[in-house]
Q: What sequence folds into this?
């Protein structure tokens, strides 16, 4: 089965990012394919590539990057939500002439069309609220 | 089963409850698992077990609410045609 996921809450502030990551890992383990994880609202902060998690806490950002890189899961951050929260990839950094790209390259900056596409191309769509 | 309802906060139950069909399933997750202490009805009821345990509720959840692992969560998503997320 093809599943896509939306994450609305910020890592650490909301439990949703952690719950979504656990759900995705179980779904992959049971043989499903995750087509896209769409990070929306404060959820885009999961892309923060410069964050350093304390040693005794789970690193959610690293968990998402691992999921994306090891299972070919597309990690998509909503452009409108990302830009106003300072989550920029290389292209947006160049466009707005900012000092640094803050989003990890495992994440892609996308528009809302990719949210709709994820819904139409997946058998199930699961939203994790803030 | 038709619809899986995800409830992640206790206050979301009031919105969700009137719209439940008998063949639906409700999965209580995160702080929504505190609802497992109350008398709920209207659909098949599940509570995400790691979240129940993290809140110290394991011995106190109502007998009509079934503990669910993350694998069970995935199986509920398989069985239901759609997933609706409620958040207050």
A:
């Amino acid at each position: 089965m093809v599943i896509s996921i939306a994450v609305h809450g910020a890592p650490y502030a909301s439990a949703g990012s952690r719950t979504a990551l656990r759900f995705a890992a179980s779904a992959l383990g049971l043989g499903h394919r995750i087509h896209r994880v769409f990070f929306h609202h404060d959820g885009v902060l999961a892309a923060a590539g410069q964050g350093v998690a304390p040693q005794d806490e789970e690193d959610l950002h690293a968990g998402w990057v691992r999921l994306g890189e090891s299972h070919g899961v597309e990690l998509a951050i909503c452009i409108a939500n990302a830009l106003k929260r300072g989550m920029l990839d290389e292209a947006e950094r160049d466009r707005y002439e900012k000092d640094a790209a803050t989003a990890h390259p495992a994440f892609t900056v996308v528009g809302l069309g990719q949210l709709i596409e994820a819904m139409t191309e997946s058998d199930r769509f699961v939203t994790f609220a803030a | 089963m038709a619809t899986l309802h995800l409830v992640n906060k206790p206050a979301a139950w009031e919105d969700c409850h009137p719209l439940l069909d008998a063949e639906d399933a409700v999965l209580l997750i995160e702080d929504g698992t505190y609802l497992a202490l109350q008398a709920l009805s209207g659909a098949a009821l599940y509570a995400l077990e790691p979240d129940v345990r993290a809140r110290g509720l394991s011995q106190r959840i109502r007998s009509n609410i079934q503990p669910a692992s993350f694998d069970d969560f995935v199986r509920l998503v398989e069985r239901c045609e759609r997933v609706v997320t409620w958040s207050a």
The interface with chain A takes residues 6, 8-9, 29-31, 48, 50-51, 69-71, 73-75, 77-78, 82-83, 85-87 of chain B (CB under 8 Å). The domain at 3-86 of chain B is CATH 3.40.1260.10 (Hypothetical Protein Ychn; Chain: A,).
